[in-house]
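User
Please review the sequence:
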Amino acid sequence: MVQLTRIYTRGGDKGKTSLGDGSRVNKGSLRVSTYGTVDEANGVIGLARLHTKENPEADAMLARIQNDLFDLGADLCTPIKEGEDPSMALRIKPEQVKRLEAEIDAMNAELQPLKSFILPGGSPAAAYLHLGRSVVRRAEREMSLLIEQEPVNPEALKYANRLSDHLFVIARYLNDKGTADVLWVPGANR
């Protein structure tokens, strides 16, 4: 368990931060930006959860995802070392990706079929989840660039990819199983 006794350390006052392995990097580095984007997505999901208390199953899924996003941030914060002992760093595991897939499949089975692209909106929870989905997509793009520069746990990218799909589906689920989705009407305002 993490115990924080001091919130500020002054360690970042010169634009550097510590990674999970203790190394110091610029706060603007791609790695820091990537796990910062994951943190941003977590904040958006927290806002969505203000509107999911009436659906305990969806709220529980989102609570698990928020915890997983801290795992993902820890994974991305700790560079992979050659010959790394897998038990030494917190890494996203295939089981976390599979859980998202199972939840997507279960919710999607209850949804109205898609007849158009969906605009972010409907219920407040759905609107926030669509925003969260777009933030997760940005994290995916950043991870893809980071992978070109240095090793990244491949399960981390898979998790982010599934999560954006999950947030799309759960947003639809919380929009009265798709009946309250706001549909895109191509060329409607020409």
Q: What stands out?
A: Residues 25-183 form a domain with the Hypothetical Protein Ta1238; Chain: A; fold (CATH 1.20.1200.10). The two ends are 57 Å apart (CA to CA). The chain has a mean pLDDT of 93.
